[in-house]
Amino acid sequence: MIEIQDLHKQFGNVEVLKGIDLVVKESEKVVILGPSGSGKSTLLRCINYLEYPTQGSVKINGNAFEDKNRKNQEKHIALLRTEVGMVFQKFNLFHHLTALGNVMAALVTIKGLSKVEAKQIAEFNLEKVGLLEKAKNYPSQLSGGQQQRVAIARALAMDPKVMLFDESTSALDPELVGEVLRVIRGLAEDGMTMVLVTHEMKFAKDVADRIVFMDNGVIVEDSPPEVFFNNPSTERAKQFIMQED
Ligand code: ADP
Ligand code: MG
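Structure tokens predicted for Amino acid ABC transporter ATP-binding protein (245 residues):
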């Protein structure tokens, strides 16, 4: 589903990703762990082309989205963004739109659906995250956990093949983390292909098929959770696990 080959990303003179190879199969759940600044967010952002690779390739479902022709490239990337949903630490909802309006927006503007069709799909996905009864609320009338669930519904409404989560519970008060993790876990059980960056170690252990441990712009370990947490093969991973526990 995702095939990353020799991915490099440089900001100015600083190389932040130094040759990443990663394959994520359909339905697989990959959790990316690693110290702050190791390049986790940059990697996720390269997967849906919020950042352009400096070198190497990212393919989704066999398609590379590079095209020398700029117009074509923009079209490819718009298509890619509908196939790869991303949920960030901050919820990034439109404050002047209701929960329903937030989930409908891209269905109308990007997918070109009628308002009636968009509303149906939006309601279905709000229901999925347990928020249909809050459809008419504005973001300011929702808790952080509810706002993040709306953000998840908005991504799901596009019918993505892959979901990326970048520390999607890190900005939440502790008592609101559980409701968001439950929604993500539900998606995992439904078979969604997912790449997650998280600091929730217990969640990572439960949900991940594989743990990818990054440090300083490279993948240091790539192993099943029971191996990674019980018997990490590098000193850096051992230290990281001790700190996080
Ligand atoms: P992580 O998510 O693992 O904490 P990031 O991918 O956010 O790490 O960042 C990795 C490194 O890249 C950091 O040193 C960060 O300062 C740098 N970086 C990230 N984005 C940019 C950018 N747009 N411009 C310059 N440097 C950046
Ligand atoms: Mg980050």
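The beta strands are 2-11, 14-24, 29-33, 55-60, 63-64, 84-87, 162-166, 193-197, 210-215, 218-223.
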